């Protein structure tokens, strides 16, 4: 229960930073995908179920607040990413800071690719290389750079939570 | 032993259930988009005040930082501007004389002003779409200030976008540079119509695409494009931007060109909303 509340607070903070602070954190018009970092690193640290729930909630938040025409698309994408990244929980170790960052990069690539397919390819925008070069790759680079710090923070929060639950049991 | 009592759900089943649910949601929202508006409203009214707060704090801090950085620059600029004021004041006097003359002549001809003065409301941009793919932004006024969907949004003296969603205390605006935006435009000088379409690929050059210009149109670089009289949602005669790179389209039937918007989308802060809707067409 406590975990769920903490997750929701994390989601809201990430979402607000990403949407309201765009002027101060965007470089060359590109913003890091903080919510994806959150979803992926939680899935990596705590398994499929957490990834799934977190992806679902944050995706829905994006869908409802960003005024797209279709509600549920981001939710589906984030949720599937959260679930499948959850399989990497097997390889989770306490002091490994490289693997999660690689996972985050890969999942940002997957997210960007599928988002392009659904929202742009279906409207007949065929120049994939442009979108890859201009949006997807820069977003990955920036996201990875941010995730180095953000992952450490999330890892710390997760550890503290785990510690508490162990005590209770 | 608290953990044992928890219901043990298989993640696979939860996943399947959620996927089915979301696909259903996508279909529903695609077919009956308006039905979900109350849900959006409810979520939005919780998150929007937070966004506004964070945005205000951010603006405050960056203003303070800017103050320290730019005192010297400001002093230099001040000198330059003083010179400019002098020369402009002189120019202004000449122009004023012309204006009086123009007013007199207009009165003689009983001409109205070129464009009607529309009622406007000012609003502040509080957040931007949180992904890199779209150019929509959120403003801090909503239906309680008299805004409604399809109202035109200006910044400075140019068209910035159109309201796509109006909620109680916030609204979403789609910028004209958005990939989904399409506007009927018109050349101010020659009255040739065209379609102004946002394009993500031209975003870096801060330009948008202009299509379907008549092949025989007598146009050249730098001409102004305004919103056209045949547009359904945009009021007539609002400046969109200046045209450049005119070329014959590959079909040889029309011309295409690029357009530099009159609005600086990099530094969009305050916008004006025209609280008048274009009269709907009645069959």
C-alpha-based Rg of chain B, rounded? 25 Å
Through-space gap between termini of chain B: 71 Å
Q: Into which percentage range does the β-strand content of chain A fall?
A: under 5%
Helices of chain B, by number, come to 3
Name the poorly predicted regions of chain A: none
Overall 3D form of chain B = globular
Query: Mean pLDDT of chain A, nearest integer?
Result: 82
Please give the largest β-sheet of chain B: 6 strands, antiparallel, barrel
Return the CATH class of the largest domain in chain B: Mainly Beta
Largest sheet of chain A: none
Mean pLDDT metric of chain B = 80
Number of beta-strand segments of chain B: 12
Q: Give the C-level CATH assignment of chain A.
A: Mainly Alpha
- Output the CATH homologous superfamily of the largest domain in chain B: Rod shape-determining protein MreC, domain 1
Query: What structural class is derived from the secondary structure elements of chain B?
Result: alpha+beta
In short:
The complex is a heterodimer of chains A (169) and B (283). With 169 residues, chain A is an all-alpha fold. In chain A, α3 crosses α6.
Describe the structure.
The complex is a heterodimer of chains A (169) and B (283). Chain A contains 7 helices and no strands. Chain A has 169 residues and is mainly α. Chain A has one domain (2-22, 30-168): Arp2/3 complex 21 kDa subunit ARPC3. In chain A, helix 3 packs antiparallel against helix 4 (48-65) and helix 5 packs antiparallel against helix 6 (99-119). The longest helix of chain A is centred in the last third of the chain and has 41 residues, at 128-168. Chain B is of the alpha+beta class. Chain B folds into 2 domains: 38-111, no CATH class; 118-276, Rod shape-determining protein MreC, domain 1 (Thrombin, subunit H). Chain B has 3 helices and 12 strands. In chain B, the strands form 2 sheets. A 6-stranded antiparallel beta barrel of chain B has the order 1-2-5-4-3-12. A 6-stranded antiparallel barrel of chain B has the order 6-7-8-11-10-9. The model of chain B has no long low-confidence stretch (mean pLDDT 80). Chains A and B meet through helix 1, helix 2, helix 4, helix 5 and helix 7 of A and helix 2, helix 3 and strand 1 of B.
